[in-house]
Amino acid sequence: MNTYQLSHLEALEAESMHIIREVAAEFERPVMLFSGGKDSVVMLRLAEKAFWPCPLPFPVMHVDTGHNFAEVIEFRDRRVAELGARLVVASVQDAIDSGLVREETGPRASRNRLQTTALLAAIEDHGFDAAFGGARRDEEKARAKERVYSFRDEFGQWDPKNQRPELWSLFNGRHRKGEHIRVFPISNWTELDIWQYVAEEGIDLPSIYFAHDREVFERDGMLLAVSQFVTVMDHEEVITKRVRYRTVGDASCTGAVESGASSVDDVIAEVASTRITERGATRADDRTSEAAMEDRKREGYF
Amino acid sequence: MELLRFATAGSVDDGKSTLIGRLLYDSKAIFEDQLASVERASVQMGAEYTNLALLTDGLRAEREQGITIDVAYRYFATPKRKFIIADTPGHIQYTRNMVTGASLADLALVLVDARNGILEQSRRHAFLASLLRIPHMVVCVNKMDLVDYDEARFDEIKAEFRDFATKLEIPDLSFIPLSALHGDNVVERSHNMAWYEGSSLLHHLEEVHIASDRNLIDARFPVQYVLRPFSNEWHDYRGYAGTVVGGVLKPGDEVVALPSGFTSTIKTIDTPRGAVAEAYAPMSVSVTLNDDIDISRGDMICRPHNRPTTGQDIDAMVCWMTEQSSLVPRTKLALKHTTRTARCLVKDLQYRLDVNTLHRDERADALALNEIGRVSLRTTVPLFYDEYRRNRLTGSFILIDEGTNNTVGAGMVLGPSQ
Ligand SMILES: Nc1nc2c(ncn2[C@@H]2O[C@H](COP(=O)(O)OP(=O)(O)O)[C@@H](O)[C@H]2O)c(=O)[nH]1
Questions:
Q1: What value of ipTM does the predicted structure carry?
Q2: B132 to chain A: nearest residue by CA?
Q3: Which of A11, A96, A130, B252 has its CA 20 to 30 A from that of B169?
Q4: The CATH number of B3-213 is which of 3.10.20.90, 3.40.50.300, 3.30.70.270, 2.40.50.100?
């Protein structure tokens, strides 16, 4: 018998598709941010479903710090080709080369903050009026308060105390020229929902999400991968460990977690029992202070 | 596993943050690093014990001032259900925040401090929940530890609340005595209140029956987006994409498109998981028809013998949400309703409602921030609507100031203007 009741994943999926279609219908030049990370992979899958059997009615954009995991870039390109989508790359390296931003120096240098400038410049250059991001409200406490449609002024800034009320499924995307809206269609998904959906849908992810052996060293309580993008300091010891990534960001500041989870089911079991948030476990950038994320978001970070 | 959305309401210090912190903590939705950061913050603020309430204070200004600024969303799951909490602060801009947080909620949690009993604010919370037609309400009588877990005190509060609630429409009302601080009746039934025979709060949230809350009778499908692939493989495909907001749609059903009035029959219903035999709220689908009729975004597909009201003169309860202006007769605004956008003129403010006493002030000439009143509107194009009490999605709209682009009002349709 049909009980006319959707599962939680079906309900989340329907809500996300509704949001994505609203944006496509009401904005002139939307773009979807796509990093190859699991959240953006799921978001892109939802967009594919929202417009099936039509192609995506907007391009996808990668904000590329230049500090990438090779597996992720390979995945990004493959996925974009499969969808026949148009890829825009907003390059932090280009922003550095053209003098738009200055690179941090020292062993702890990170390009994380510079992403904001590259992103805002690309939004302006291409005249994008809406940018879909794969942020989830359960990730971080500043995000818990962000709207699905998050208004940004001409400097790309977020004003948390002055957000538009958001009611029912009615979204207000009105803005003036030069302003834009960040749209978060998977706001209501948790990390576990994402993985359950990946399992249910058989979604392909970059291999670094699963257990593999990697040369790592410990810094600030996190395991960073040895790569050309980081300088291992003298007192830091390099060891090979079985690890996987819970988030995918800039290779110089995204930490791995020790894990033997080699399949989606293993990962679900791990996520369901873990006692540390994904950003807490893996993002050096959020550890700077209690309000680190809030500050970066105000400036226009995704 | 189903999804349940609930909104929380309580006056400052009733223990709302403590209760949410406990639900999250006991259901393991709080992680060690979050707890550690809360412990650090508690020490910094000179607290003697870890203040679970800090788990839910998000922004820096809030932590500094010890208040909550805006609606925050929290998530937790048990093996039975996934929960989305819309956590609304109890003081400033209360009405605006609660209306926002409650608009999609299946259930409202209203907190009452057992020592204080029903205050004016509790009445207001209950009224707003009923205005927004949240189908289920749970009154949590908190801090029972401070009244010696006294059954008589609980019964007294319950009776007083029930008495007031008879004036409201609350389809399902329950009461739970608890102590958020000590965990009594939050997850497990409390040994301190053996006299209480009901379930714990979490058990109630897991079991409350929400399947029949949706309208499965009046088929309503506002068209969001038209899918035309222009490819060889899908040459003739013309799908009307959207979210079902009422009733059940099936292939073969005779349907009518509004405003054109053309009829056809449903050929297929495609979903993200393939073609289906039935579609119902809140599914996101794409409908194809057997005839080529002209349909675009903003149109409404429904059944020929069960149509929404079509009209431009509408009466609605409106909640005003900005301090930058007030709603007065002759105000012109943009309006969004289902997938339609229109402009509207405020023709009349019939009365302003006192949310504490429910008194109607017919001499009021404006609605200011957080005020609610009955308003008559004239729209530039016809809307296809139902009464809000019959369908929360075809009966609701938002008002937008065309100068600032801000969302300034929330409307719940009562019916055509007299
Ligand atoms: N004794 C007792 N104190 C409580 C209980 N629940 C909350 N409190 C205390 O009441 C105060 C206000 O609680 P809080 O959760 O911050 O209230 P909010 O303003 O509603 O979020 C805090 O000092 C809590 O520790 C309870 O069940 N019993």
A1: 0.92
A2: A168
A3: A11
A4: 3.40.50.300
Which atom of ligand 1 lies nearest, measured to the CA of B20? 15
Which tens digits make up the pLDDT trace of A242-262? 989 888 877 777 888 888 999
Nearest ligand 1 atom, CA B16: 20
Instruction: Give tens-digit pLDDT for A30-54.
Output: 999 999 999 999 999 999 999 999 9
What is the rounded distance in angstroms from the CA atom of residue A150 to the CA atom of residue A19?
13
Fold of B309-416: Elongation Factor Tu (Ef-tu); domain 3 (2.40.30)
- Token match 């996925």: residue? A79
CA dist list (Å): B233 to B36, B228, B230, B286, B291: 56, 12, 9, 17, 20
The two tokens of residue A76 are: 């990004």
Structure tokens at B30: 């709080």
Alpha carbon distances (Å) from A208 to A33, A261, B114: 20, 11, 53
For tokens 């590259």, the residue is A118
pTM for the structure as a whole: 0.91
230-289 in A: which are within 8 Å (CB) of B? 274-277, 280-281
Rounded to whole angstroms, how far apart are CA atoms B249 and B281? 10
Evaluate whether A199 touches A265 at the Cβ level (below 8 Å).
yes
Helical pair A38-51 and A8-26, crossing angle rounded to 10 deg = 70
Location of structure tokens 């205005």: B131
Chain A CB contacts of B241 under 8 Å are 21, 50-51
Q: Whose CA is nearest to atom 6 of ligand 1?
A: B15
| B78: closest chain A residue by CA | A272
- B52-66 pLDDT tens trace: 666 665 555 555 555
Q: Which helix (H) or strand (E) holds B416?
A: strand B407-416
